[in-house]
Write a structure and sequence with these properties.
The chain is an all-alpha fold. It has 16 helices and no strands. Helix 4 packs antiparallel against helix 5. It starts with a helix and ends in an 11-residue tail after the last helix.
């Protein structure tokens, strides 16, 4: 794998750390600014919405900018947002800092996925995308717990200053290691937008929303579920999240490896197994050992879908994949927000802290159904194309894009 992927992974590590570390530092931030925990939670919501909106916005703004330069500009935005959070004199200023940093998130992973795929041979593209996303998964194992620890003992402002430093490191790596990659000739914004007319692109994005939404339906409420149902102490939640992160790392690498060999079968297996494991979590959540194992499996199976889904979007939006790739990153965050809301609804309805696991299982099963529909549609299009090629004169054929 090219060294340029390391630079992309470092940037992804910083982005992953800043996205999730705030969850462990909400009490400290709320106390410093004199706001309630729910109000401080706007720092999480604001970031997620910034990713959803920023992914297409920043990608569109960057349509006339070479990809390497755009990645550097995005890392600059990320650094600025985290520095603003670190020195924020008021809560509103920190919220602005979070939103500024989030605007870089979707476009960085979207454009980064395209760059990573172009750095390697076609049969290694999913693996290259997975290598970049390794930075995001490792952030959940190292960056988030370490950042939380530093924030709790030294101060949360130091955590965000360190994250800004990671951004500087990623920026330097991109400047030094990523080769100049000018945009393909003739590709304009209208070509990027045309990808959304492709049903396969939309199906892949819907799979992203439902599949990863299934993961976050359960993980969003992991703390109350594990302390009230499994009987873990409050302090145990940190290492349970580390287990989840380790599962993410393993699943991401496995998903990348097998997606290059058999992309759709990889999605069938990972989404089907994820639906089953989430349903079983309603039972295993009552036992400490079984719950810990299940959490790691959810991380692994959930992130095993990321490289194949991202590659699926790139493949189907061939020729002008950048905007579609970035929007698919926003789809992950849309799934997170949707599933967290649905999980909260079933808990509020009195179904208990394990009820979000059923929500997650239904969402993952829905993603599996969409995968089957997508493959069937592709086979029908291929058969139609073959029939045209064999029975219609060349000048009368309608091109069929797969």
């Amino acid at each position: 794998m090219p060294l340029a992927l390391l630079a992309l992974a470092i940037g992804a590590f910083g982005i992953g750390t800043t996205e999730f570390v705030i969850m462990g530092l909400l009490p400290e931030v709320a106390g410093d600014f004199g706001v309630s925990i729910p109000t401080a939670g706007l720092l999480v919501t604001g970031y997620a919405l910034g990713v959803v909106l920023g992914a297409p916005l920043m990608t569109v703004l960057g349509t006339k900018v070479p990809r390497k330069r755009m990645l550097m500009l995005l890392m600059g935005l990320f650094i600025a947002g985290n520095l603003l959070s670190a020195v924020a004199p008021a809560f509103a200023v920190m919220l602005i800092g979070r939103v500024v940093a989030s605007l870089a998130h979707g476009a960085f992973f979207g454009i980064g996925s395209v760059v990573a795929a172009e750095l390697v041979a076609p049969h290694k593209r999913a693996g290259a995308i997975a290598m970049m996303f390794t930075g995001l998964t490792v952030a959940n194992v190292i960056g988030v717990p370490l950042g939380t620890l530093i924030g709790q003992h030294v101060g949360w402002r130091i955590t965000f200053a360190i994250v800004a430093g990671l951004g500087v490191l990623g920026l330097a790596g991109i400047a030094k290691l990523v080769p100049e990659m000018p945009r393909p000739e003739g590709v304009r914004l209208r070509h990027e937008l045309a990808a959304f007319k492709n049903a396969q692109v939309l199906l892949a994005m819907a799979m992203t929303v439902l599949g990863f939404g299934g993961v976050f339906a359960a993980i969003t409420y992991i703390a109350p579920m594990m302390t009230h149902i499994a009987g873990f102490a409050d302090g145990s939640v940190t290492w349970l999240l580390v287990l989840f992160g380790l599962g993410m790392v393993g699943g991401n690498l496995v998903g990348g490896r097998f997606a290059d060999r058999a992309l759709m079968p990889m999605l069938y297996v990972s989404l089907g197994a994820l639906a089953v494991v989430l349903a079983l979590f309603t039972v295993t959540a009552h036992n400490k050992v079984a719950a810990a194992v299940t959490i790691a499996l959810i991380g692994a199976l959930g992130f095993a879908t990321v490289p194949p889904l991202q590659k699926r979007v790139l493949d189907q939006a061939h020729g002008a994949p950048t905007l579609a790739s970035a929007v698919n990153i926003g789809a992950f965050n849309l799934g997170n927000a949707l599933s967290a809301w649905l999980g909260g609804l079933v808990i509020s309805a009195g179904f208990g802290y394990t009820a979000p696991n059923w929500v997650g299982a239904v969402l993952a099963a829905g993603a599996l159904v969409l995968a089957v529909v997508s493959a069937a549609l592709e086979r029908r299009q291929a058969a139609h194309g073959t029939a045209l090629a064999s029975g219609v004169p060349a000048e009368q054929r309608t091109p069929v894009h797969h």
